[in-house]
Write a structure and sequence with these properties.
heterotetramer
Chain lengths: 212, 230, 230, 212
């Protein structure tokens, strides 16, 4: 049950909302794809939590250096004006609220902005948190990018998360294949819906009360 | 294109308001952003809370700011010096509030302010009058004092070289509080001896990544003697 | 004359004992001190507590140490990976204790261990199962979790260049946990790609001052493929 | 009321107890004088809390650089192998127990190793603590170097400090103009007495019970 936007389209849409001059951390997976669609006329500085500001595109061929990787352990490149630092400094930067935006994937986002993205909590599942909790609470704005529904049709924007939480009340904007939502104290607003859908269509499919 | 470069020290500090908390870098005169302090004196904001290691030397820089009665409170570790007469007089007259903090605790509180850490347990000061009234705790057989983060509206610091992204390097022991204060302030303003092109600073050697710096202003080293620190 | 240079990785880790806590640098393979880990495997110490960001990849390095049943407990942030089959098996079989820590909290706890800070209040993890049972506190309207310092008997790390005083510089994102772990361990052992003369490292660019490092061992980059991390 | 050792002699005596390879912080004043007497055949690395390891001698003439000063704000020099760092890193180094020895001056030291060296506590006295409290609790060993008596003849090695404390139970060795004392859980021991004095002479003049 996929919506009107492809994953590439979703990444492209989220990329539009990253302004000139922003310091941004893109999480592993779909969020990383956003870097391919950042408007070329904007200077945006990417942070990777393993110790770098000014990260460039994925390394290819001779550029590959095992000492220069991103948080997903993919070889990347360095842009002019980059800086390296150790892990405590890198997470101080995140925790201290210095990043403008971080973009994360999610299992679930609640209508109050709670985020669940690190652990299914299932029997026998091996937990691995990495930097997810630090990212969730650290950036000035937290964007989530995810398909709105699971493969079995469950809505991932939920009244209350059932998966173990990553952070409480931290998500501000959710980019999905059906719509872009913002979450604030007065509820969830549909900023933009795709494929001709209206707020009522989305209310019906999500089972949520939404603002237009 | 990002450019954090500001044309003058006056512009750089124009929005400091009455009642602002201002961190000022430097240990003695090393790393003291003299020209930014002078611009702040000129600008006129008052009722300031100042965070600095010292409380002014001689009659220039921070001492001049104190003398002009712009500072309501100072948070520092070492106010009393041979040439701290301005501070001494105001403090004795009850015209300046002092929060005295051990130097390492001051540095760590500023770091905490920039690092999103609300408080920490330190052994420094336990059992002394500087821990009076503070929460203490015995952890693994040693006694600690709970200290809180410090943050600020503005940081005024001095670095050696900077670029338009705000990346900074320092010189020798003039580094001191600069890299900490820029993290703990909403608006961090660095005066640098020279602005360089992006890419000139070695990414392995950048001490302050640009993310922490909002404004960079080049200050020629040929300043008139009257505005130099001592 | 001070010389912290040791002739071989085997000598460098010879005194690791059964039950030791060992911090191991690296984020994935970047900064992983593969040769020191291999030497530790050879040496035979068991019942180890290991602190690392991950819990081993593939079948070499840390994974080999786990496979050989030398590790009783692992403190890490990201054990589960596509190639963490060794950890996965032992964990599922209940043969390996796991303390899962958010990555930034792990880094800050190690820093605290080296900095004499016994504990700190962090917003990370508040309200999640990783804060279960931990002390929390609301400070200035935000909720925080109290986390404690981590320290170790040994740190095994990889750096780029070092001198006989133990001064170190790193390469790119291989810096990661190294500069923190050397501070938190009683004995810090650095493998470096090359040893340089004292004075060759720029004092402005030294990342780990020698005070933190007890042993430096040069490891040629021409290691056999079987001991290379991935 | 000065003892057999001059201040230079006291500094020379303390310098003898600093071993090869030690990382040492010398406090402002008399402790700083120790650097003039460090045995030249020992490699000893000096820390200054304003952000440097590998501090060299006081700068003279053209060496003077206002950006390179010690904790007493005196221009100094840099030795090969030096490193610079910011204040939080410098005090983490101290607080974390990485320095082998720090040497401090004192107003008073108690027989249980309490230190008072930052504030007279007098009416109208302006307090200034600087790095004193961090140094007192941070180094593996804390040496105090001081005259044993004040100018008015009061002993500065006391049953209990009357001046405001800098740190509790932190001092291990006290170098004075009359004797060198060590402080441990079993009391104060005279390690070496100068000018032909005996333990009984020192007990009489200090009013303390001392071990020989």
């Amino acid at each position: 049950m996929r919506g009107p936007l492809s994953r590439a389209d979703m990444a492209r849409r989220a990329a539009q909302d990253i302004p000139e001059g922003a310091y941004v951390n893109l999480g592993i997976g779909l969020p990383t794809m956003i870097s391919d669609y950042l408007p070329p006329d904007r200077e945006i500085i990417l942070h990777t939590e393993n110790g770098m500001l000014g990260m460039g595109p994925v390394a290819v061929g001779d550029q590959i250096d095992p000492d220069l990787i991103n948080a997903g352990k993919i070889p990347v490149t360095e842009l002019p004006g980059a800086a390296y630092f150790h892990h405590a400094d890198s997470f101080a930067m995140m925790r201290g609220g210095h990043l403008d935006i971080c973009v994360l994937g999610a299992f679930q986002v609640s209508i109050t902005g709670d985020l669940a993205n690190w652990h299914t909590g299932g029997e026998g599942a091996i937990p691995a948190v990495g930097g997810a909790m630090d990212l969730a609470i650290g950036a000035k704005e937290v964007f989530v990018i995810m398909e709105l529904f699971t493969r079995d049709g469950s809505c991932k924007l939920v009244p209350e998360c059932t998966f173990p939480l990553t952070g409480i009340g931290c998500v501000g904007t959710v980019y999905t294949d059906y719509a872009v939502f913002t979450i604030a104290s007065d509820g969830v607003t549909v900023v933009e819906a795709f494929g001709g859908l209206g707020v009522q269509d989305l209310e019906k499919s999500t089972g949520l009360s939404l603002r237009g | 294109m990002i450019s954090k470069i500001i044309g003058s020290v006056a512009e750089a500090i124009a929005d400091v308001r009455d009642g602002s908390t201002v961190m000022i870098g430097g240990f003695g005169s090393a790393g003291q952003p003299v020209e930014l302090i002078d611009a702040l004196l000129e600008q006129g904001a008052k009722d300031l809370t100042v965070v600095n290691n010292n409380a002014g030397n001689g009659t220039t820089g921070l001492a001049a700011l104190l003398q002009a009665r712009r500072v309501r409170k100072i948070i520092c570790s070492f106010p009393r010096q041979v040439d701290s007469q301005v501070f001494d007089g105001l403090y004795r007259a009850g015209e300046l509030e002092l929060e005295l903090v051990p130097q390492g605790t001051l540095a760590e509180r500023i770091r905490a302010g920039g690092a999103g850490i609300a408080g920490f347990f330190t052994p420094t000061g336990y059992g002394t009058m500087l821990a009076d009234g503070k929460e203490t705790r015995r952890i693994d057989g040693r006694d600690y004092v709970l200290e809180s983060a410090l943050s600020a509206d503005f940081a005024l610091i001095k670095a050696h070289r900077g670029d338009r992204l705000g990346n900074l390097v320092y010189r020798k022991t003039a580094r001191n509080f600069g890299p900490l204060m820029v993290g703990a302030a909403s608006v961090a303003i660095a005066q640098v001896a020279s602005i360089v092109e992006v890419g000139e600073l070695d990414p392995e050697s950048v001490v302050t990544p640009g993310i922490y710096v909002q404004r960079v202003v080049e200050v020629s080293s040929h300043t008139p003697p009257s505005t130099q620190g001592q």
